[in-house]
Amino acid sequence: MNAKRREVDIPNIYTTKAARRNGLTREQWSKNKRYRVQSGIYAKSGYRPSLTEYLMLSAQSMPGAVLAGVSAAHLHGMRLPWAMQEDLHTYIICPANKTGYRRQGVTRLEIPIEPSEVTKHKGVYVTTRQRTFFDLARHLSEEELIAVADGLLVEHPHRFMKPQVKREDLETMLAEKKGRWGVQKCRAALSRAVSGSDSVKETELRLLLEDHGVGGLVCNVPVYNEVGYVVFEPDLSLPALRISIQYDGAHHGDSAQYQRDIDRQHRTEAAGWIEVRIARRDLTESVLHEDRVIPRAAAKVLGAISARKKFSPERG
Questions:
Q1: CB of 149 within 8 A of CB of 210?
Q2: Tally of CB atoms within 10 A around 89
Q3: Rounded to whole angstroms, how far apart are CA atoms 287 and 282?
């Protein structure tokens, strides 16, 4: 009597090579409802793999390949534009003799790379954060690249948060690539990057305000009372003028968060500060301010600056 054939536990997403290696039979393959995610990669019907899960398996199916560009940025958790958050395309750098890696859904980046610019992430090869920042110049605008740099440099000693990459490491890497395409864009982005921004929207707001003449902004620097306790922590602020700028994202519509925002505003005003609250639409909608049309966010902050200087001339 023939031994009963072992049933293979089929994962939610898998490669055909792994399935065969684990003993998946033709009969089980034909019964398994699936769809093709990429050449050689399948997922169970109705299962939507996470981007990280997909990229990891894609890299594992191409031995020797190094995830790069947007794909590397996803694995490193870098701050990419919303349009790229669900990009299932795989960007790789790999040996020239690996012609079999030319497949649908995969882009080979024909660019040189140093061994020191490659690291391992959960078993797959990926470009380092520094090198990934450089490669993203091919895909992103300068403003989007500034948001990426802000995310790499963000640190908050009061939260015990250290930066993912040091500014001098990025500067050294760019100096080594002098003359290469994208270096100037990266340098321009790095020159406007700061170490305290907590989100892409905070970066967007900061750049908008700077472009409309607001200087001296600092990001997420807490304000303490006389006994050393944090009273509030502005997203952006002008400490010399005691102006706090808070960006109200989508989660601020929640009733509990709304009450916390009101409580924070009371603490801010009690400390002698002005609070300017910025909504998402304030970044895109324009108003007339002193004979020129500018984004409402800039008009709100410029108005607060004027009011503060008018009633506190010694702060001007």
A1: no
A2: 15
A3: 9
What is the C-alpha to C-alpha distance for residues 201 and 29, in angstroms, rounded to an integer? Answer: 46
Strand partners, 278: 247
Instruction: Identify the sign of the CA torsion 45, 50, 54, 57.
Output: negative
Residue 252, classed as helix, strand or coil, is: helix
Q: Which two tokens stand for residue 298?
A: 């800039």
Beta strands in 34-185 (DSSP E): 34-38, 41-44, 66-67, 90-93, 106-108, 118-121, 124-127
Burial 30-64 (b: 16+ CB within 10 A, else e): eeeebeebbbbbbbeeeeebeeeebbbbbbbbbee
Q: Can you tell me whether residue 171 is helix, strand or coil? A: helix
Helix (H) or strand (E) run with residue 144 in it: helix 142-153
Give the whole-angstrom CA distance, residue 310 versus residue 316. Answer: 8
Read off the pLDDT of residues 52-86 as tens digits, 9 standing for 90 and up. 888 998 888 888 899 999 999 999 999 999 888 87
Both tokens of 104, joined, read: 């649908």
Model pLDDT for residues 167-213, shown as the tens digit of each residue: 999 999 999 999 999 999 999 999 999 999 999 999 999 999 999 99
Tell me the C-alpha distance between 265 and 275, whole Å. Answer: 7
Written as six digits, the tokens of 168 are 């001098």
CA dist., res. 269 & res. 218, Å (int)? 19
Can you tell me the distance from the alpha carbon of 24 to that of 8, in angstroms, rounded to the nearest whole number?
6
Q: Taking each helix axis from N to C terminus, what angle separates 142-153 and 183-192, rounded to the nearest 10 degrees?
A: 60
